[in-house]
Amino acid sequence: MITGKNYVGNNLSAKGSKTYKTFNPKLNLENQHVFVEASEDEIDGAVALAQKAFETYRNVPGPKKAAFIRAIADNILDLGDDLIETYCFETGLPKGRAEGERGRTIFQLRSFADLVEGGSWVEAAIDTALPSRTPVPKPDLRKMNIPIGPIVVFGASNFPLAFSTAGGDTASALAAGCPVVVKSHPMHAGTGELVASAIVKAVEETGMPNGVFSNLNSSGIEVGKRLVQHTGVKGVGFTGSTRGGRALYDLAAKREEPIPVFAEMGSINPVVVLPDAMRKKADRWAEAYAGAITLGSGQFCTNPGLLLGIKGDALANFIKQLGNAIVKMEPSCMLHPNIVEAYESGKSQAMAQPESTLVVDYDGEAGANHARQAIITVEGKAFLENPTLHHEVFGPFSMVVQCNDASQMEGILSKLEGQLVGTVIAEGGEAKNYHGVVEALKNRVGRLVFNGVPTGVEVCPSMTHGGPYPASTDSRFTAVGIDAIKRWVRPVSYQDWPDELLPVELQNENPLGIHRLINGEWSIIKI
Amino acid sequence: MITGKNYVGNNLSAKGSKTYKTFNPKLNLENQHVFVEASEDEIDGAVALAQKAFETYRNVPGPKKAAFIRAIADNILDLGDDLIETYCFETGLPKGRAEGERGRTIFQLRSFADLVEGGSWVEAAIDTALPSRTPVPKPDLRKMNIPIGPIVVFGASNFPLAFSTAGGDTASALAAGCPVVVKSHPMHAGTGELVASAIVKAVEETGMPNGVFSNLNSSGIEVGKRLVQHTGVKGVGFTGSTRGGRALYDLAAKREEPIPVFAEMGSINPVVVLPDAMRKKADRWAEAYAGAITLGSGQFCTNPGLLLGIKGDALANFIKQLGNAIVKMEPSCMLHPNIVEAYESGKSQAMAQPESTLVVDYDGEAGANHARQAIITVEGKAFLENPTLHHEVFGPFSMVVQCNDASQMEGILSKLEGQLVGTVIAEGGEAKNYHGVVEALKNRVGRLVFNGVPTGVEVCPSMTHGGPYPASTDSRFTAVGIDAIKRWVRPVSYQDWPDELLPVELQNENPLGIHRLINGEWSIIKI
Description:
The structure is a homodimer.
Chain A: E1 6-8, E2 11-13, E3 19-20, E4 23-24, E5 29-30, E6 35-36, H1 40-57, H2 62-78, H3 80-91, H4 95-118, E7 125-127, E8 141-147, E9 151-154, H5 168-176, E10 180-183, H6 189-205, E11 213-216, H7 222-229, E12 235-239, H8 242-253, E13 261-264, E14 270-273, H9 275-294, E15 306-310, H10 313-327, H11 337-352, E16 357-361, E17 374-379, H12 380-385, E18 397-403, H13 406-415, E19 419-425, H14 435-442, E20 445-450, E21 489-495, E22 516-518, E23 521-523
Parallel strand pairs in A: 7-22, 9-10, 9-12, 10-11, 12-13, 14-15, 14-19, 15-18, 17-18, 19-20
Antiparallel strand pairs in A: 1-2, 3-6, 4-5, 7-8, 8-21, 16-17, 22-23
Helix pairs in contact in A: 2-4, 2-6, 3-4, 3-6, 4-5, 9-10, 13-14
């Protein structure tokens, strides 16, 4: 049941005076529930509870954390159709997408539960003593990862489940041993509250400390700002716009004690389409990319907003086919009227650039808040010279850059801002002839896709979802996959510590049977 | 031979007009060589060369990087007595210390050479495809670490070899595949130039690209500032004061593209002396700590500046013995008159606090620029209430805090700024009765020492040299030990990439025989 209140720890609370509603873009009207924005007292209360909870939660053994996180997954599933319906009402996205995203969220939670139950994620390293070493004896040193403290997670507009209340940031922080305070996204506050209720239920069922999770409503920037500046907060997770992420980064960097902000932000995800692929499989790739560009109304952070080819008949044909394929797609509803408005404005700005040539701009029927997909094309030189053309247009829009040759393509790629994903479309062995192009692309992205589309982000250990700035604020970490836990931990070393006082992960007997680096060799046996 | 010039890549250059000399604190007079500060052109030239060098150096295979780094170590040894003599002339430190630090520097370089020759440091992870998975096939994903780009390293005043020109920051960045521009420390510019000449010789001998290393002279803040703000620079390593490190952090955070700054800064390294240890081994620990506090004139970042005990006869006796032991130590020369001056001023400020009681302030003979060691003591309540007492006094000074009980001790520890090291001195099984104290200490430090002194920093995989702010700007990374390489890399994932186009670390055959996480299991075999 949606109450419109905040969860300050396990308690529902609504002391604030500012209220708001969510919006159903498909019906083009407000949803019924009234949400009460968190007051300053409630914000401070949530952080104080998180700090207190951290004192015990940081030492909760892996299997108990795993049970807690699995209970969250189970309780989210138990929300059943209520959750799916609320999700659809608050996003305009179809039921299949809601169910798919719920599945992804559950899978992420269970992956992190497995990870912390296993225990090897602490990256234990042990160097045993050499008491007879000269000139000085070598001490015994043992290292492992420990959690850094309370984390603030900002829900993302475009993934109300997988990148929000119980999404990857929350799951990875809880797995690490860090309490989480969620700044709920105002566009899906109801979905957020339902998921929060599932987490709070899990907290109570599995005996976790009150305050290990809070969910705070917010319709403006004040709640987030106060949270990021709070001395009790030790890290921030965010998925959203470059402007929003950078503002949080700046706030955190200005603190007396700066804290890390992991913001996954804008990206236009360049796609290099090589000549043979265009000549031989223009149809196939035009079809695939028409689908990728319009997937979820183009509201994926991995949406391909930039395609690069080498000028000529094959590229001209590909552009034509891409235009034909995309114009056949049904327009779909975007998340919110504000997002449609921003999309139309960004699209118009790109089209208004004197160097741009329109390929296609859907002009058929479209429902309220539906996005009209479009493709434009520009010359390589124009793209290089006009930075406005580099801006992300969030929605079903893409630009084809016609390069003079491979060298110009390499030059363009090497000057691009940082990106989440770069893709190479090739046929036969042609990719090996474009080493410079691929190298330039690699240096600007977090993930390289070959003969595919960038939109899907697999949840697995070898995924990197992040990239050089502004794709993310810290390219050294991924937001998706189990390595996302590394954002919320720091190493601590024990020197000459008595075995019985060490954490179990570092004891000689290795009671958990975890993978450890012992005197430079990996091992799961005891010392 | 010392020329006083900069190395802009492999070329000696002195276009600037600002000059300076180093100082021999023992003889209390200037050294002879004249150093020419790098001009803006030389700074920009060094970064441009580094950017160009990165294009090839980032793909140099591990064994070749290892040969380069080993040649640096060999060439530093080949500098022989010239280096040792210059080091002593520029620091006032004794020959034995110079040789010991050179040994540490060589060991660090060779450790990183071994690491990159082995190849497993790239943390390869592979998840193979599941083409028949429903509803969508699972792609093949493979991840490894790649270097981030040119790095600026700031030499540290207190370790002219091990934390400067070819110290841990430079060694780890070069090992990662990142070119390095060193901002030489003005107090040991001659030592820096000699080491730089050894590196440049290694660049030429092993055929590394020109620009993979530069060494820029600097006597003020301008050179460092320009380097940190340069768009071609992608990361910064620094060891020094909190004020200096924070200034660099702030500059880097304000850039259009923020870059990581790994600053290892101030620390007072609290030591908890438990009652039984004080009752039974006051002599032994007073002796050991008199040595640790005065080691290298107290100019170690791990110097124990704060000792905490529980009030009573045993603590009073320990304080007396510590005073007696430290007053017997010979005063020693500090690095520079400015450092002696800052020490005496910091010491006086601490002593002038109304709550402080003097235990001992050495008043015997002392040579020019020698530090007079001192111990003061304060009550727990006074320490809690007066933040001036928390300031680091860089030099042979320590403060004993007399706590009312374990609970007050825990309260003090939990409110301390972040620290590099925390130590517990205990006897028999008493440590297990102070769980809250140890937990509070653990939460504020990067390394916990049991029954020892914090000063030594072992170079090994399980070392953490870093800690919560302001011990370092990023507690998630260590500045000492092979994991220091992680500061200069980011993961990149390859999706469905053809085997023959993958880096060798990710190819099916595993030609390097490295340790990889394959479908969730560690393995060194092929797929």
